[in-house]
Every structure is written in structure tokens, then in C-alpha cells.
Amino acid sequence: MAGSFRKEGNLILKHGTFLRPGMGAILVAVVVAAIAAVACGGGNTTTTNASSSVTATVSTAAETAAKNAAAISAVNILDNAGLHQFDVTLAAGTVPPTAQVTAERMQTVLLLTDWPSATLKADAQQLATKLAAMATALNTDSPNLKVAGAAAHDAHDTEHLFSTAVWNYLEGQAGVRKAPSDVTPTTR
Description:
The longest helix is centred in the first third of the chain and has 35 residues. This protein has 6 helices and 2 strands, in the order ββαααααα. Strands 1-2 form a two-stranded antiparallel sheet. The chain starts with 12 loop residues before the first strand and ends in a 14-residue tail after the last helix. The protein has a domain of 109 residues: Four Helix Bundle (Hemerythrin (Met), subunit A) (Up-down Bundle). It is mainly α.
């Protein structure tokens, strides 16, 4: 039986599950109890201070990870929204049928994302304003193509700058690029 994990009494994982199903529940209970003991402390000031420090560190790390993940998701949505095509199509004199709703949805993404830095948040708000101008220019039966085209071009250019700033920030956080922990403003 070389390579088999099915020996009696063996508690090793195979394919991500315990061979004895009850052992998984026991392990989860032990981990939860350990976390609760650290979080609640026992009245010991040293233990309480240490557990508070650990909890704060874990909380900050989790918050940073969540904000970075939200930024990755949002910038990918923005990068793939089709702003380049809207810019080109409007410049050629045609109103893309989905341009207005896309601009509005990208505003929503920008305004609801919990950006990982104050600078990125401010830049996101400025890009959202430019997308609002684009959506407003298109929100008519007969849009003024010069106004709509200029708004689309401005939103498109600003999105490129914003995307670069977000990726620079994230790459700096990941250690991929030696960059400052924050970025410089990207809007004009």
C-alpha cells in the first residue's frame, strides 16, 4: 500500500479532506477557540495588550489587502470598459449605443471603490466627474458630437493616467516595482 493514506488511524489530509470527517470539525473548533482566547484575553494586561496589538495588525493587514483587491478589480473593469473605442467612434461622428450607460457604470465603480490611498481616491473622483460629463453630453436624442467627443477623449486620456497610477501603486505595494507608497496626482 505504498502511497496510500488509508491506513487505520491516519489523520493526514488527502485531496483536501480528512480521512476521518470528524477530525476536520475538531480542528476548526480548536482554531476558533484559540482565536477567541487571544481576542478575549484573560484579564492579564500583558496578554491583553499583546492580543490587541496582534488584532490591530491583522485588522490593518486585512483592510489593506481588501483595498488592494478592490483597486485591482476596479482598474481591470475600467481598463476593459471600451473608453478607447468610444473616443474613436465619437471622433468619427458616430454615437456608440452603450457609451452613456458605460460612462455611468464606470462612475459607479470609481465612486464605490474603497481606494487604498487618499490620492487615488481623489483621482478616482476626478475621473468620475469626467465620465459624468461624457454621460451628460450623450444623454440626449441628438448629442452634440463635438462636446460628446471632447468629453469622451478627456475621460479616455484621464483613465489611462489613472490606470497607470493605480498599477504603479499596486506594484509598489507588491514589491514588483520600487515605488513610493503613494502616487502623485494623475489628473490634469
